[in-house]
Design goal:
This is Lipoprotein. It comes from Tumidithrix elongata BACA0141. It is a single chain. The protein is mainly beta and 358 residues long. 9% of the residues lie in helices and 37% in strands. The protein is built from 4 helices and 28 strands. The strands form 8 sheets. The chain has a 7-stranded antiparallel sheet, with no helix packed on it. The chain starts with 15 loop residues before the first strand and ends with a strand.
Length: 358
């Protein structure tokens, strides 16, 4: 079980504790966020935080007696606005995460390559597969908040917390990264070999203390010092906003993508290209699914007035849509399934949830 703890990195600055207006941030789970309107946070007068007296705040700790009389420590989490000029980012509480992310990337921040994404959570995995590789974790109670992590060239970490079904920004703060020097020195541990992203013809060739980039053009690029690469773990490096994994570790005959945790295997692609389908069979109710060779997938609805995208991300089977429905592909058919529903349930329900791909 994970708990989020946030401390201001500058002990000389007075950090203001912000207690989120929802319960359950301490219990990390995987249920879908629920819509809820929450007023902007104000400094909370609560025992949930303890002022250290030196400009910092720490989570309060309480002891509960378990069934056998043993004391079990619980950590109450608060989010802290650090003094590292997080207010300089032109973000606003209540804006969508997609809008905030565009601003953050435009300011030079990049997804934290060392983020530990809880991919065991279906919600986190669905977010990760949509390309938000900076996702850390989501809570399963209350407003079901999610936390995202970014890093800049100065080694600072930016944390963003969203809540609700619409993923609205609730808080953000910046911390200085204490392990920057250790990570830079770790470049000596980078193994030689070819490194790939997965799904593209791009690669890195690493030889001892040097590396070079290559792609489908076949033109040899100049060698550069290996110090420009960031060591993540054995067989994984970070370069140019992407994770690169040692090619010899890639699973055989499977569609895989390199992540901070190594190669992630995706579902075998059922086809490459675009297929159409229509659950209702009428005019203006058609849909389409497009799958690219690298696994990028787009699902659209084609109405009489135009088309709209209802899913964009990596392929999975089933494909989990934002409204909780799932699209399951089997042979030349596709099924629209509700929560806990199987293809067999769909077939026997009599509802228009089965369609032929053409």
């Amino acid at each position: 079980m994970k708990y989020w703890k946030s401390y201001p990195s500058d002990p000389s600055a007075i950090a203001t504790s912000i207690l989120l207006g929802f319960v359950g941030l301490t219990a990390i789970g995987c249920s879908s966020p629920a819509i809820s309107n929450v007023p902007q946070s104000t400094p909370a007068q609560s025992s949930a935080t303890v002022n250290t007296g030196n400009g910092g705040t720490h989570p309060a700790r309480s002891l509960d007696n378990g069934k056998e009389g043993k004391a079990t420590e619980k950590v109450q989490v608060t989010l802290v606005n650090s003094a590292n000029k997080s207010q300089d980012l032109p973000l606003q509480k209540g804006m969508t995460y997609e809008e905030a992310r565009q601003i953050i990337l435009a300011q030079g921040w990049k997804p934290n390559p060392n983020v530990e994404s809880n991919l065991r959570s279906p919600v986190v995995k669905a977010i990760f597969d949509r390309g938000y590789i900076e996702i850390n974790d989501c809570s399963g109670t209350g407003e079901a908040p999610c936390r995202y992590e970014f890093v800049n060239q100065n080694g600072e970490l930016l944390y963003v917390v969203t809540a609700g079904r619409d993923s609205l920004v609730r808080n953000w703060w910046i911390e200085k990264r204490s392990d920057a020097s250790q990570q830079n020195s770790a470049s000596n541990s980078i193994q030689s070999g070819r490194y790939w992203i997965g799904g593209t013809d791009q690669g890195l060739e690493i030889q001892a203390e040097r590396y070079r980039y290559y792609d489908e053009s076949g033109i040899d690029k100049p060698w550069k010092p290996i110090s420009e690469l960031k060591y993540i773990k054995d067989g994984v490096v970070f370069y140019d906003a992407n994770h690169w994994c040692l090619s010899t570790l890639m699973p055989k005959n499977r569609v895989s993508t390199c992540t901070a945790n190594g190669w992630m295997t995706r579902e075998t692609l059922p086809f490459i290209g675009t297929r159409r389908f229509n659950f209702l069979g009428g005019s203006g109710t058609g849909q389409s699914i497009t799958i690219e060779q690298n696994g990028n997938t787009v699902v659209q609805i084609h109405g009489t007035a135009g088309s709209s995208v209802i899913y964009r991300g990596n392929f999975s089977n089933p494909i989990v849509l934002e409204d909780g429905r799932k699209l399951l592909l089997e042979a030349d058919k596709i099924y629209s399934l509700g929560l806990g529903q199987s293809a067999q349930d769909c077939k026997s329900s009599g509802s228009p949830c089965e369609a032929k791909l053409y």
